[in-house]
Write a structure and sequence with these properties.
With about 200 residues, this protein is an alpha+beta fold. The protein is about 35% helix and about 15% strand.
Length: about 200
């Protein structure tokens, strides 16, 4: 009999102290959180492209698939990405072995505006994050970056919106972070569901 620990079960043992669901839900959704401490362990191409393949299958309006993923995994590529991260985020994100810039096309193939491009790309990021969790990886979406510098360095056309840089890797010891970040290196909670869900109409 195999004694291999399922990554989802192992993570749940770590987060259940901090997260309690109000209703029945697969532990996978509680396990996905956003650490800042990354180990120096490399992510295999097999796992990286498994994560991107999951994102590839997200739903989208008219099946336009507006998302684009610009991947940095070599030293040279990562150094370029580090140049447009805000200093605070760079202090911890530069340890991640993979960074992925998520962008989306604002136009449909016929040139019409795509009002769903950001919504659909958010779904793709979610698929990416969930598949990463299933593989024992962690992800952290970074909004703090210089979009114009990223656009210039990566040669991204103006018809694409830039949403986030995703750090992907294996979770490291929080002691590698500075003291202030160590205090924050725990899964966060959520607002009560009753504050977010309204039946029929919005309550006053």
């Amino acid at each position: 009999m195999s004694l291999t620990v399922n990554p989802v079960e192992q993570l749940y043992n770590e987060v259940k102290e901090f997260r309690k669901a109000e209703h029945s839900v697969n532990p996978l959704f509680l396990n996905r959180w956003s650490p800042r401490a990354f180990s120096d362990r490399k992510v295999s191409d097999e796992d990286l492209y498994s994560v991107l393949e999951a994102a590839h299958w997200a739903p989208s309006s008219y099946n336009d698939q507006p998302w684009r993923f610009i991947v940095a995994k070599t030293s040279e590529q990562l150094t370029t990405f580090h140049q447009f991260l805000h200093p605070f985020n760079r202090t911890w994100a530069e340890k991640a072995p993979v960074l992925v810039l998520v962008a989306s096309n604002k136009q449909r193939e016929n040139g019409d505006p795509n009002g769903a491009h950001a919504f659909d790309t958010g779904a793709a990021w979610d698929y990416l994050a969930i598949q990463a969790t299933l593989l024992g990886l962690v992800t952290h979406a970074i909004g703090g970056f210089d979009q114009e510098e990223a656009r210039r360095l990566l040669n991204i056309p103006q018809n694409f919106d830039l949403h986030a840089v995703i750090a992907i890797g294996y979770q490291g010891e929080k002691k590698i972070l500075d003291e202030n970040l160590q205090k924050r290196e725990n899964p966060n909670t959520r607002k009560p569901l009753k504050e977010l869900v309204f039946e029929g109409k919005v309550s006053s």
